[in-house]
Write a structure and sequence with these properties.
9-stranded mixed β-sheet, 9 helices, 24 strands
């Protein structure tokens, strides 16, 4: 199981049937083992097989069925956290290098689409950042001046090209793009397998150990992988309990998609300055309609369960700015990891020579995933890796002030969660639950995650996340349990859907 088994369905999931090698059923050896079959893991595998490495990729569920199937697939070199903020933490040279990494990722995706995925609907577009409120215009001015200093190609537009809605002056970012994410990773998977790589679904990582300089990966079903190097590209790293998880915050984001007449909405990327910001793109359908995709309404994972309100807000916002949009045909959520200093972590796991991680994508998982893959593949094969220092998971910010504030804000959520151990449950008895509902209940000294199935059967599990001991919360949209601390997710029966947890919630009668 993975995030594909959550309740909501994205507009991409109808095509999520990627050919693979089935579950891993026996021990296997390779040069590089990759845990996670989303855009970051498959992109890394693609680069490595092209460089002559033998590669094995595993995923706990369907290939591509993690957060890549829940993205909106903006390919942007514009930074969702703003370059002016990045400069304040890392300085201008690092910010300029980050822009180059994103531009290089878009170029690389374009080249791969031309060679491997001509049906992935890659297109170059302009992107427009416009003010959510008039008072945001000063911040736009600052971002524009910063981008000019960094050499990022920007210009002013009197308004973003939204028919019938005046956004006010907007920053135009040239050279952005979009792609169909599932078709893209399906093509990556086919190319990997054609080159001799192996890609195994329904193969859950359980543990890793070092043996004579190599890495041995144990899977939940028993087969082991022996590799010279290992890469963990699992959205949130499953191999580490502390070092990276304290540097990022799990956030839940929401998206809707609905039909609009082809040509009624400009084919561009749009973002506003709201916190949390809205993000918009089109997906052509070729039948006289386009699919308008709109996201936003973010919150920390596990700390809200008002999804109907958030979707209603998204729909209202969309109709006001895109009048040809009527009803959403799809609505879904996804999880992003927000790093404390606005850049992903891609490279050697702290303290390891031959274990690599990719995480901390923020809202730019496609471009960060590809830039991280290029970096990790270069480090493994001894090639030049121009962004390795930039993405180093062990890095320290040049200036700590804004980053420290983000760090403290992220840790408050974890501290608040542990305080819940002392409080009452949300319900006193499972009798209070309607079919399809879940809630946390106190039983003596223990907190239980209690779910009533549609047939009335009550499922009781420990509410203690098996990653770091935080208490899970019910997610009524996805019908799952979310951990607010580090983003783990569990099915109603306690099975792991999303890491960093690798073990299911304990039975209620276990200590």
């Amino acid at each position: 199981m993975n995030s594909r088994d959550e309740a909501s369905r994205s507009c991409w999931m109808e095509e999520l049937d990627i050919a693979d090698d089935g579950p891993l059923e026996q021990d296997i050896a390779c040069d590089v083992a990759i845990v996670g079959a989303g855009v970051a893991g498959l992109s890394t595998a693609y680069e490595l097989v092209r460089l002559g490495k033998s590669v094995v990729v595993i995923d706990r569920g369907a290939i591509g069925g993690g957060m890549t199937a829940r993205t909106t697939a903006h390919l942007a070199s514009a930074l969702d956290d703003y370059y002016s903020e990045l400069v304040s933490i890392h300085g201008e040279d690092a910010a300029r290098s980050y822009f180059r990494s994103q531009a290089a990722a878009i170029d690389h995706i374009e080249a791969i689409c031309a060679a491997e995925a001509p049906d992935a609907d890659f297109a170059r577009l302009d992107g427009y950042l416009f003010p959510a409120h008039p008072e945001d215009e000063a911040g736009l001015e600052e971002e524009y001046r910063c981008c000019q200093r960094l050499g990022i190609p920007v210009s002013w537009a009197d308004s973003a090209p939204l028919t019938g809605f005046d956004t006010g002056r907007a920053i135009r970012f040239a050279g952005q793009a979009r792609v169909h994410p599932v078709r893209y990773i399906a093509a990556l998977t086919a190319a990997i397998r054609s080159a001799g790589g192996r890609v195994f679904r329904d193969t859950a990582y359980l543990a890793d150990s070092k043996r004579d300089g190599s890495i041995e990966i144990e899977t939940e079903a028993g087969p082991r992988i022996n590799a010279a190097a290992a890469v963990f590209a699992t959205n949130s790293p499953v191999n580490d309990r502390v070092a990276i998880h304290t540097k990022q915050t799990p956030m839940r984001t929401y998206a809707i998609a609905g039909h609009v007449p082809a040509g009624s909405v400009s084919d561009a990327l749009f973002w506003d300055t709201l916190e949390a910001y809205h993000y918009v793109r089109l997906q052509p359908l070729g039948d006289g309609n386009d699919l308008l995709i709109v996201g936003g309404e973010d919150h920390r994972s596990g700390e809200a369960d008002d999804m109907d309100h958030r979707f209603d807000a998204l729909i209202r916002w969309t109709r006001e700015r895109f009048p040809t949009f009527q009803e959403p045909a799809y609505r879904w959520s996804g999880q992003v990891l927000e790093p404390i200093d606005f850049m992903p972590f891609s490279g050697r796991n702290p303290g390891d020579d031959n274990i690599f991680i990719h995480t901390g994508d923020s809202g730019q998982g496609m471009t960060n995933g590809v830039a991280g893959a290029l970096t990790i593949a270069a480090l493994i094969t001894g090639q030049p890796a121009p962004f390795a220092a930039l993405f180093d998971p062990s890095r320290k910010p040049v200036t700590a002030r804004p980053s420290l504030a983000n760090f403290i804000e992220g840790q408050i959520g974890a501290a608040k969660n542990f305080a819940e151990y002392l409080g009452p449950g949300e319900i006193r008895s499972a009798d209070e639950l309607a079919p399809g509902e879940g809630a946390v209940m106190r039983e003596g000294l223990h907190k239980l995650a209690v779910y009533r199935a549609e047939d009335g059967v009550v499922v009781r599990r420990s509410a203690v996340c098996t990653h770091a001991g935080c208490l899970v919360h019910w997610n009524s949209l996805e019908t799952c349990w979310d951990c607010p601390c580090h983003g783990s997710q569990f099915s109603p029966a306690g099975e792991v859907l999303n890491g960093p947890a690798v073990r299911p919630l304990a039975n209620a009668d276990e200590p």
